[in-house]
């Protein structure tokens, strides 16, 4: 179990309001126009929000879903967004105007969605245990890529490996090649999967499972880290530099930043008033965002004390 060292620096995070129910998933875009980037949030209020990444400033709200939104992702050039909802649809949006471009029908709740590299296709994971791929020009003709033994919790597209990563409530993570008829590899964990996350370059896959954080190298899918924590982990996200892991707990409301190599706890932050459901790093690794049951998104400085953005720090 990692040792605990509380940080001597207390952060005041940027608090991003606007949602009215729990925030369940977050995603930063890649870098666009030099050093700028965007952040999109999925919420049970059914209204995904697009924000400026470094500041958290509101840019727009996507209106059209009739149920909770469980997932929201941006494509590579941030021109489109895809969302997954309890209203039995995934939707593709124009991220500049907020216009709905296409609705992808399902026969059950859609828990997760992502773009493939060419943006012409969307992958989805559903409560009906299926992972599907849609050609968005033919939304009524999806193909089933794989079926889990339980509802699908998350799907991710690895741009590095050009594979689909799907996680289910069957404690399995499937690696799917679009050219193959079945999973090319299955990763098994001992406890229920709370969350999976890919680094922005798609090279590192992390999983929060029970009281463990498990990290795989996507090139080989060999375990790179297996860290025992002293609490039920709700999320684990690795920074692009592979020096930090940010975690949230299911019950203690704390945000922890740990050293990647050793798992040593470096910082502990309070801020949310409910369990933390998701966390992710900005593409430059300078910021991480957390989303909570309390309905807020909070932005934290990954390197407290350095000059970046709007953060104000005070010593304690």
Describe the SSE topology:
Blueprint: E1 9-12, E2 14-16, E3 23-28, E4 38-43, E5 49-52, E6 58-61, E7 69-74, E8 80-85, E9 89-94, E10 100-105, E11 110-115, E12 121-126, E13 130-135, E14 143-147, E15 152-158, E16 163-168, E17 172-176, E18 185-188, E19 193-198, E20 204-209, E21 212-217, E22 222-228, E23 233-238, E24 244-249, E25 255-259, E26 265-269, E27 276-281, E28 287-292, E29 297-301, E30 312-315
Antiparallel strand pairs: 1-30, 2-29, 3-4, 4-5, 5-6, 7-8, 8-9, 9-10, 11-12, 12-13, 13-14, 15-16, 16-17, 17-18, 19-20, 20-21, 21-22, 23-24, 24-25, 25-26, 27-28, 28-29
What are the main properties of this structure?
mainly beta; 30 strands; 4-stranded antiparallel beta sheet; 316 residues
Classify the secondary structure makeup into a structural class: mainly beta
SS strand fraction: over 45%
N-to-C SSE string, H for helix and E for strand: EEEEEEEEEEEEEEEEEEEEEEEEEEEEEE
**What profile does the largest beta sheet have?**
4 strands, antiparallel
Rg over CA atoms: 18 Å
Supply the number of helical segments.
Answer: 0
- Percent helix, as a range, is under 10%
Q: Which runs of at least 5 residues are low in confidence (pLDDT < 50)?
A: 3-8
Q: Give the overall shape.
A: globular
């Amino acid at each position: 179990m990692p040792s605990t060292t509380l940080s001597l620096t207390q952060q005041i995070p940027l608090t991003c309001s606007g949602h009215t129910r729990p925030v369940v998933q977050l995603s930063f875009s890649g870098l666009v126009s030099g050093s700028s980037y965007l952040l999109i949030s999925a919420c049970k209020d059914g209204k995904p929000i697009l924000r400026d990444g470094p500041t958290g400033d509101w840019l727009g709200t996507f209106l059209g879903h009739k149920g909770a939104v469980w997932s929201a992702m941006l494509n590579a050039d941030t021109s489109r967004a895809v969302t997954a909802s309890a209203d039995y649809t995934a939707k593709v949006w124009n991220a500049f105007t907020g216009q709905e471009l296409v609705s992808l029908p399902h026969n059950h709740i859609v828990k997760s969605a992502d773009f493939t590299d060419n943006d012409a296709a969307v992958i989805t994971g559903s409560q009906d245990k299926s992972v599907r791929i849609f050609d968005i020009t033919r939304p009524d003709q999806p193909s089933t890529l794989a079926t889990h033994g339980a509802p699908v919790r998350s799907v991710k597209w690895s741009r590095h490996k050009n594979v689909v990563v799907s996680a289910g409530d069957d404690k399995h993570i499937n690696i799917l090649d679009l050219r193959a008829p079945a999973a090319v590899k299955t990763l098994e964990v001992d406890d229920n999967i709370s969350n999976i996350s890919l680094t922005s370059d798609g090279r590192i896959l992390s999983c929060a499972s029970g009281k463990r954080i498990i990290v795989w190298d996507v090139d080989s899918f060999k375990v790179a880290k297996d860290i025992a924590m002293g609490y039920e982990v709700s999320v684990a996200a690795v920074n692009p530099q592979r020096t930090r892991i940010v975690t949230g707990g299911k019950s203690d409301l704390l945000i922890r930043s740990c050293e990647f190599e050793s798992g040593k706890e470096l910082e502990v932050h309070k801020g949310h008033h409910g369990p933390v459901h998701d966390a992710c790093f900005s593409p430059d690794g300078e910021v991480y965002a957390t989303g909570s049951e309390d309905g807020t998104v909070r932005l934290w400085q990954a390197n407290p004390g350095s000059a970046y953005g709007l953060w104000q720090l005070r010593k304690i």
